[in-house]
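Trying the structure run again after the queue cleared.
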Amino acid sequence: MTDFRVRTHPVLDIPEREELEFTFDGKPIIAKRGEVISSALFAAGIKVFGRHPRDGAPMGIFCANGQCSQCMVIADGVAVKACMTLAREGMVVGSCVGDPALPPEDRPVGFEEIKTFETEVLIIGGGPSGLCAAIELGRLGIETLLVDDKEELGGKLSLQTHAFFGSIDDCFAGTRGNEIGHILANEVNRYDCVETWTGSTAVGVFSDKRVGIQQGQRYVLVHPRIILISTGAREKNLSFPGCDLPGVYGAGAFQTLVNRDLVRPTDRLFIVGGGNVGLIAAYHAIQAGIEVVGLVEALPKCGGYKVHLDKILRLGVPVYTSHTVVRAFGETDVRGIEIAQVDKSFKVVEGTTRSFEVDTILVAVGLSPLDELYNMAEEAGVPVLSAGDAQEIAEASAAMFSGRLSGRKIAKMLGKSSFVPATWEPLMKTLRSKPGATTVHKAEPKDLKVYPVIRCFEEIPCNPCTQVCPMRSIKLSGNSITDLPVFDGRCTGCGRCVSICPGLAITLVTEDYDPDKKFALVIMPSETDRKDLLKRKIVTTTNLDGQPVGEGKIIAVKKSPILDKRDLLMLEVPYEQRLEVAGFKLQRDFEQWNETGEGFDDGDVIVCRCERITRREIVQEIRRGVRDMNQLKASLRTGMGACGGKTCTELIQRIFREEGVPLNEVTPPTERPFVAEVPLSALACVKEGSE
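Done. Tokens:
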């Protein structure tokens, strides 16, 4: 049987997990204990999960986060989301084609009463902000219930294998995200007053001030005094010809497969979007041994941190700014991508298209807050706060601090003695701030035997290098955490600054390596396959922009003295190149494909994935005078699918704008429970064991 699992990884441990077997369309599938159905299918090389009943189009995954319905399958006779349903021994899973058969009407069914739970505080979402809020409340002994729809706490932290930015003292800067998730979850579990429900989805806030929770196969109501919404964000969608093919999915889904479930879902991928999510996904792909054929960003400059961009450029990832995706190739799944340059109005420039052979396209074009439950709580008159991405899209470091602040505020609302330092609000704003000015300067030699070269040129909130230098020789250029670090003083060559830098932006230059000054030793960070590096012996060195500099000889690969899983690569380079060498190239160059994008009609692009509604159908309704998205829902069924409009609403709003209709003239869709599917058996409280 074909196995697409990650067997070795430079950062992640590969645990031994018990295997179980289920069937998919009659074929035996081996899953790992605790693994969701979608990951097990991808590990077996299956990317098409079913066919849409409207037109027979193939369907796979898109978000892998329970927000869409593209991964729907039939499991033991019930339609479920494959990305949210654990595989079980002996489970019978089939493609979602048509409706599942209903059980005979004469089977006995027993019912129970819906149970209601009382709590002081209900936190919805067990990611960085929710966990940090729960810790603050736990320290104060406040009764708290924390619910999360995943089987493990941590939220998106479980997908982040890179070291975090920010401050060591305030938000674990220099520690890997997945490790932070475990640290916070363990801290929460210390407090008896904090109860956690995993695998539990909050589906609505009602006028009686109760919150509906689907907990496995049962439905319960929670009556809190205060609600904190820390549900995070969902990925924005993008419509283009072929966008609905299996193999086009969100970068978060990719990180879920690779970093959480250790599945290798692709051989060659292309990324659309140059924000932090897209840049980090490219880096994670390379770590998993996946080729990144390229990345496009429609703006003239990538919006993510420059250090994230620089490290993938150094590894050999081509980045095309002022470019966009034109179409995806393929019939049942992705076989290629066509990109093109865009002008200032984001229109495709004629004659600039190029194509590449890929099997996966990651869409990373931004995030939208998950705020539906917040809006419902406000409407119901329940005291409610939000934190993290549900409040404002930012880095996880800011989300953690936001959670801490929210926890203290809730305590004060409950009449508890809780001190909120005056510095917290400004610091949270700083952690949420966009990258500031970029000041690139040429590295200058120092009259020292060994010294660091710091290539951190963009103002971002980060300071761990200043805190680990034993000589205190690295300082910020000003008083703000966003000021650039500078080296001035002595250096012992300990490598701690190289080890801790989250952006891998520091190298050490050893001047006295060769008395004849023919060679110098450059020590740089590495988080790629150590065995592969040692086999290579010689690597192509690259500068800050990823351009080749020359060749470097690998002398040794040593473990980092302070950051787990990071290596220090000792590279012998020509002496005159010592200040220019910033990294090494891992990827090969990719040739263009000979496919063309002729013959497609932009009107046929799928906008509503659940109901397979095209752009042409929506435009026709708008030109007929429709200005109410609820009317579109009634006439076309947009937003009627299992995702409840989560993936198409913003796309439809964009079409209104493109048709010259201001959004202030458009009635938005009405938000109402449920925000996720609830089986009738759970809602009716069918007794366990009933058919």
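The mean pLDDT is 92. Worth checking whether this holds up in the mutant runs.
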